[in-house]
Amino acid sequence: MLVLLCGDYKVGKTVSACTFPKPLLFEDWDNGFLSVKNARDQKGQLIVPDNDQITPISFHSEKVFPLDFTTLMDGKFIPEFTKDSPRLMQLHNNILSSLAKDGTYEGKPYKTLVIDSCTTMFNVWDQMILNMNKVTHLRVQDYGTLENVLFSQFIPSLKTLLATGKLEHIILIDHIAMEKDELSGMILEHPVGPSKPMGRLLGLTVDEIWRQEQQGSDYVWRTRRAGLFQAGSRLALPDPVKPATFQQLE
Predict the structure, then answer these.
(1) Strand 208-215 vs strand 2-7: parallel, antiparallel, or unpaired?
(2) CA dist 196 → 145, 187, 234, 239 (Å)
(3) Which of 24, 108, 138, 158 is in Cβ range 3.0-4.6 Å of 142 for a Cys bridge?
(4) Per-residue pLDDT reduced to its tens digit, 26-67
């Protein structure tokens, strides 16, 4: 099952995603795995008691970058803050290649892959383009490259992993973007993508797109349209799923 789990900041997306079957491989782009070890329910019980079966891989840069305000219209220049992006993307590619080969990474088999979050990973994609093309800002043609990476490489590769049975579940954690439709004047909500148009299409490419909310002290998955956000389920799941855990989903 390929799930796009969207929500505002600090509503428990990471914790809920980590309730999926173990062993679980966790791409930690936001340095947020600590919440998985600490989150508890109303009874004081750990929401993810088997968190020792999760392997977190750090994807956040630990470098301190000088603030550089250089803008070049001509010539080639690699912004300093982009120089860690090749390492991060190579690490991600290595993980997917290994899982595609035999369902393992560094010799250990996994049932679930969590990428937390796509929002940050998409920012690194931007940095990769700046780094590889030695420019300081994205150009019009670069958005075509991002679209090819997202819809012709990234999503299809994840679907292939699931179709071949190498993994059971892939959870993509993302945030929500808000914009105003210029024609109708309506306020729209959609997943964050490499660009707003790509974000609006992202939900069409996955099996399940859920919105995570916090209702009181409970985490909740909305599996159908909720307010301005178009959630949806090919499994015809009930709405809402409460609490937002894989065990409740079963």
Answers:
(1) parallel
(2) 15, 13, 24, 27
(3) 138
(4) 999 999 898 898 888 888 889 999 999 999 999 988 788 888
